[in-house]
Every structure is written in C-alpha cells, then in structure tokens.
Write a structure and sequence with these properties.
The structure is a single chain. By secondary structure, this protein is mainly β. The chain is built from six helices and 40 strands. It has a 22-stranded antiparallel barrel. A five-stranded mixed beta sheet has the order 3-8-9-6-7. Strand 10 and strand 11 form a beta hairpin. The chain is globular and about 80 Å long.
Length: 701
C-alpha cells in the first residue's frame, strides 16, 4: 500500500488530538476518553477499548445526543474506515467497514440478536438512534467470537434500560424530548418512562416519533419522496433474581409507512411505491455471575428479530414489478450461550451460537395475458390475483450452528489471546422451489473452522504494541444459492467465501500531560485483509452465457490500510482526531473502486459555567477517490474522480437546571455541496444533505 503524505505525517509526528471526555465537576475527577470506554460485547471479556488491542469503538448515547442525530449512520464520522453507503433517504443506508458494506459481510445485532435485511436498492437497518445506549463497532474479521457473516466487522446495538435514567434513590420518573430540524422541517419527539418499583425490578418504556418533509440537498435541489414518518417503541424489564443473577426481557419495534422512491440507495429516480416497513427485535436473557465462583460467568440469550417490507401501488415501470403487493421478509431466531471460566491464570471464554434465518419473497399480482414486447408493458390483465415466489428474492431457510473457545492469559507483560470456532450451515429452499427440481439435492451444507490469535506486549506502563491474526468465512446466502432471475440456473455448487485479517499496531496512554487533570490516548494500526473464493454476481451474456448460474466463487481481493486515533481530554476540554486510509485490488489487478476515501476527522469542544454549558465543533474531510463509472453516452466504463469535500458541524448544550436541557446543532454549516457513496457498487451517489439547524428541549420529572 502506498501511504499518502498526510498519513505519513500523522504516523510520524502524532500531532492533534481525538477524544470525547465525560468531564466532571471536581478537579480531581477521573478523565475518561473514547478509548477508555468499556467494551464487553465486541471482545466477550470486559476491558477498555484501548486495552482490547482490537479495532473496537464504542459510541455512547451521549455522543449520539450531542449532535441530535436522527440516524445511526450519522454517528460514524469519528471512527476510522467506518462510514455509510447509500442515499440520504430514510432506510437507504448500510454500514461500510473497511470497504465491506453488504449485509452478508457486516454482522449486525440488537441486544445480541442477529438483525439482517437485504433487498435490492434498499438499506439494511431502519431502527431509531434514540433507542440505544451504545453502538459497539468491531472493524475487521470477527468470525471466531461472533460467527460467519462478520468478514468486514460487527455492529452491536445495545438498547437503553432503566438504569440509564434512574438517579440514586429514585423509584420512578420520565424524560421527554421535543426537537425540530430546519432542513426537512422534521418534528421529532420521545418519551421515556422508567421505574424501579422494588429493589429487584427495573422497568423502561419509550416511544419515539419523527415526521418530516423532503430533504433539501447540498446542491439546492429537493430530494423528492424523502420525507420521514416513522415511530419506534421500546419495552424493557430486568429482574434481579439474586445479587448474582439477572433475568431480562426486551421488545423493540420501528415502523414506517409512506410513499417513497423504490431506489433509496443511489442517485436517479426509478419510480415510487407505497412502502411499509416493520423491524422488530425481542429477546429473553439470563445472566449468572457469582462473585465466589471463578468458573462461572454465564450469559444466555434467546430472541427473535423480524424485518418486513411490503410494497404496493407501484408507479410507472414498477406497476408490473411490484404487482398488487410484494413482500420481503426476514425472520431470525437466535440462541447465544456464553461462559467465562478463570483457571490458573487463564480466562477461558466458550459458548454456542445458533441462528435460524427464514427468508420470504412473495408477490401477489394479476396475471398478464397480453404483453407489449416493445415496451414490455402489460396491456391486458387477468381477473384473478395469484401469489407466487419471487425469482429475484428467493425464499428459504438457513440454520447456522457455531461453537467456539477463546483463551486469554498473561506471560508477564505479554497478553496472549487465542481462539477457534467451528461453524456449520444448513440451507434449504422453499418447498415450492424444491418441487421444481426433483432430480437435484437442493438442501446444501457448509462447514469449516476459523482460528484467531492476538499478542499484546506492554513495553512500558504507557506503551503497548500488538499484532492480531483472524480468519473468517461466510457460507453462501439463500438468494445466492437459489437465484433464478432471468431464467438462470441455481448455484447449488457454491462454496464458502474466506477472509484473513492481519493487524499490527500500538497504543499509548499517559496522564498528567500538561497538568494533573488531563489524559492522552493514542492508537495506531495497520491492517491487511485478503478475501478468497469471493462470491460474485455476473449477468453479462458475453462473460457468463445463459443459463449459467448468476453467482460463483470466481474472484479474490486484497486490501490494506492505516488507522489513527488520538485522544486528549482535561477537566474542561476534549479534542478528537482520527485518520484512515485504505487501498486494494482484485485478482485481476483492478482497483477496488467501492472502497471509501481517505478520511480525516476532528471533534473538539469545551465546557464552562461548572460544566452546565458545552460548545463543540466537528470537521470531517473526505479526500478524492477514483471511481469506475458508466458513461451512458459512450456506453463504456471509465475512471472518474469522486470529489473531496470538507464538512463543518457545530453543536451546543445548556443544562438550564438539573432536569431541563437545551441543545442546538448545525449540520453542514457552510452548506457545502458534496456527493455520498452510492449504496450499489460504491459509485458516486446522490448529493448529500444541505445545511440543517437542529434544536431540542428535554426535561425530566
């Protein structure tokens, strides 16, 4: 990889600073930066982000709230090589981690329950940012601990609970927020009610609503059919069976229903549909952590997530494509049991994970009795509606069973973490699909092992160096195996796709840098990722003649990059800096055009008046990147520049009283014109959102 001049300067001089401080009112209070945040879900053992020697970041609810973010995808600016792909429309984005952006490559969970949705020209996650206490993001392959489908990384969403709101001695209360965004005239509000009726029971109920007009883009044009009209509900209860055991129940749902553009991820109008979205997660959890038993630290979770999208009333060319009603649905059952035993200086973490993923794609339509083969429009319909499976969204069921063990131990100043996972997939199509292929075994099985090792050496009390090696894989998806769109054969011979992720880095942490109330943290990392037996889609008649399967293990790619995070905080000031760059090519030597651009982000702020007033600013510079683009005039592909841009955001907060807070945030202060990364193929996407002034008042009682 050829590092740019700016990355070499940053690596050499390690200058400005990145941090988010939870400042306190006393001079001797401990200073906490973003790299001090405690992570459990991403590493499966409790430690700070800095101590983990892994590419882990934790976004807190305070960080989400300070800029009044209405979308989880707007919270990613300060994480190296993490961004969003897709347009600004609601439901049009998905996570991009080190260039992996498809749902099958980035594993998303809600309170430990696997959350997956994939549909053509649509995003993958529709839930509201107000519901979450933390967002933990692990960059790089993480198959050993989290399972197949984590080639690029893991996004773990943890829902808020009553303890996040209750103060000492309180038994009940409520918090109300009302806000307004100027750009799309969005009105938003939330109510959180929390209670501790007994010493052993915590209860939380919340409702969040958002309603807006269309967005105004940074080029001054309105983004048609981009308004927001959704609501979310959260119910959560935790019952302490004993001092050492806890039983939890969680239910959350987000619903949206409105006319919107069929293509929410990329530039260009395709026509509109009336789309109803319902994304729900429910789980039951049990924790047992006896203080006098080093062999038992048990967590067990059983839950269910469902994502359902229903489209009706398609306009234009979508009328026949959508029919009377098209339904896209994922239903996923998850069982996750984990225990940690401490034996003779070793922390052994082991467990079993099970997911059963059902995928449904159905269309109800009137049969076409006469078609115009020049326009491909139906000129005469039958009178009796028929419901059938979609060849472009094949249904089926995929069961994943995984077992793993991880050993963590110290040899003086060296910490060694080794792990291994075995995982097996059983994939079955629908009965209707199988009935068409009586001569074929359409039930497919895949399995393999994945190892990992991490070495972290504490050179001095302040300086540590680390090296990580993690292998991963994913089995073919239901739609990759059984796709028959356009009359092609299914790809029953697909094999597993593999990934290897190597990391080399250092961490540095020191207190009392300029005075006795500050702290400085640094993490620098180089990574190299190789993907083999990559499953790709090819519909070209020249390169892949009919009726050959659309999907095959026909490619590989390599990518590497550099990531820097630098944190400084004292009692009154925090200053944050991150930088990332990534480069890569496939097995033919062709550049990976879909990789994100180099990103330099600075977030800084200070507090005053006994920390009741906080002012801050965030600056994000995204560099030029080369993109392969199709020229409709010449009907050829060529390399073009996705232009760089720098965005400025401002934010402020005032605690009027202990119970009343006022917030102000201004996104894209200078109304800079820029374009985002498209959701399909990573090309040049739609224009980004123009300036928006956001306000909020909150009070608790």
């Amino acid at each position: 990889m050829r590092l740019s001049k700016i990355s070499l300067c940053l690596a050499t001089f390690s200058l400005p600073l990145m941090a988010h401080a939870n400042t306190q009112n006393t001079n001797d209070a401990a200073i906490v930066t973003s790299l001090d945040a405690v992570t459990v879900t991403a590493t499966r053992t409790e430690k700070t982000v800095l101590q983990s020697a892994q590419a882990v970041n934790v976004i807190s609810s305070e960080q989400i709230e300070k800029q009044l973010e209405s979308s989880l995808f707007n919270t990613l600016d300060m994480i190296p090589n993490v961004s969003a792909n897709g347009g600004p429309r609601n439901g049009g984005q998905k996570f991009n981690i080190r260039g992996f952006s498809d749902a099958e490559d980035v594993l998303v969970t809600v309170d430990g329950m696997v959350q997956t949705f994939e549909k053509y020209r649509m995003g993958s996650l529709f839930t509201d940012s107000e519901l979450y206490r933390t967002i933990s993001i692990k960059r790089g392959t993480s198959t050993v601990l989290h399972g197949g489908g984590a080639l690029g990384g893991v996004v773990q969403l943890e829902l808020k609970d009553a303890a996040d709101f209750l103060r000492d001695g309180e038994t009940a209360g409520a918090k109300v927020k009302l806000g307004y965004d100027s750009n799309n005239e969005q009105k938003n509000g939330s109510v959180f009610a929390f209670a501790r009726p007994t010493e052993t029971l915590d209860l939380l109920a919340a409702v969040v609503k958002r309603d807006s007009d269309d967005f105004e883009l940074s080029n001054g044009e309105m983004l048609d059919n981009s308004g927001i009209e959704n609501s979310s509900v959260l119910l959560k209860g935790e019952y302490f069976l004993t001092d050492d055991s806890l039983l939890g129940v969680t239910y959350t749902t987000t619903q949206d229903a409105q006319r919107t553009e069929f293509n929410t991820t990329d530039a260009g109008a395709w026509g509109t549909v009336y789309r109803e979205v319902d994304q729900t997660a429910a789980n039951l959890s049990y924790e047992l952590m006896p203080s006098d038993n080093p062999y038992l630290d048990l967590t067990a979770k059983l839950g269910f997530t469902t994502s359902q999208v229903t489209e009706t009333d398609g306009e234009g060319m979508l009328k026949d494509f959508v029919g009377i009603k098209s339904t896209y649905e994922y239903n996923i059952t998850t069982l996750d049991v984990m225990n940690t035993s401490k034996v003779a200086g070793h922390a052994l973490t082991y467990g079993v994970q099970y997911t059963d993923k059902e995928r449904i794609g159905e269309k109800t339509a009137l049969p076409c009795e006469r078609i115009n083969f020049e326009t491909y429009a139906c000129e005469q319909y039958g009178t009796v509606a028929q419901t059938g499976e979609m060849t472009s969204q094949p249904g089926g069921d995929q069961v994943r069973t995984g077992v793993y063990i991880q050993d963590e131990f110290k040899l003086q100043d060296l910490t060694v973490i080794t792990g291994v996972r075995y995982e097996r997939y059983e994939t079955n199509p629908t009965a209707s699909f199988s009935s068409k292929f009586n001569d074929l075994d359409t039930n497919v099985t895949h399995s393999d092992w994945a190892p990992s090792i991490s070495l972290n050496y504490q050179v001095t009390p302040e300086l540590a160096i680390f090296v990580n090696r993690q292998s991963g894989f994913r089995a073919p998806l239901i739609d990759e195996l059984y796709d028959q769109y356009g009359g092609r054969q299914s790809a029953l011979n697909l094999d597993i796709e593999y990934s290897d992720n190597s990391e080399l880095g250092m961490t540095y942490s020191v207190d009392n840098v300029l005075n006795n109330t500050d702290t400085l943290n640094l993490r620098v990392m180089y990574f190299d990722i190789s993907v083999d037996d990559e499953i790709t889609s090819l519909t070209s008649e020249t390169q892949n003649p009919m009726p050959n399967p659309r999907y095959a293990n026909r490619a590989s790619n390599d990518r590497d990059g550099f990531e820097l995070e630098l944190n400084y905080a004292n009692q009154y000031l925090y200053s944050n800096l991150t930088y990332s760059t990534i480069d890569g090519e496939d097995n033919t030597g062709k550049a990976l055009w879909y990789l994100p651009a180099d990103k330099l982000s600075v977030d800084t702020g200070f507090s005053m008046l006994d920390n009741t007033v906080m002012l801050g600013a965030k600056i994000v510079h995204t560099s030029n990147r080369d993109v392969e683009s199709y020229n409709r005039s010449t009907r050829q592909y060529g390399v073009v520049k996705h232009q760089s841009h720098t965005l400025w955001d401002l934010y402020a907060s005032w605690d009027v009283t202990q119970d009343v807070n006022l917030r102000l945030a201004i996104d894209n202060v200078f109304d800079k014109e820029y374009t985002v990364i498209a959701g399909t193929g990573g090309g040049i996407g739609d224009y980004g959102v123009g300036r928006s002034v956001k306000t909020q008042v909150s009070w608790r009682f």
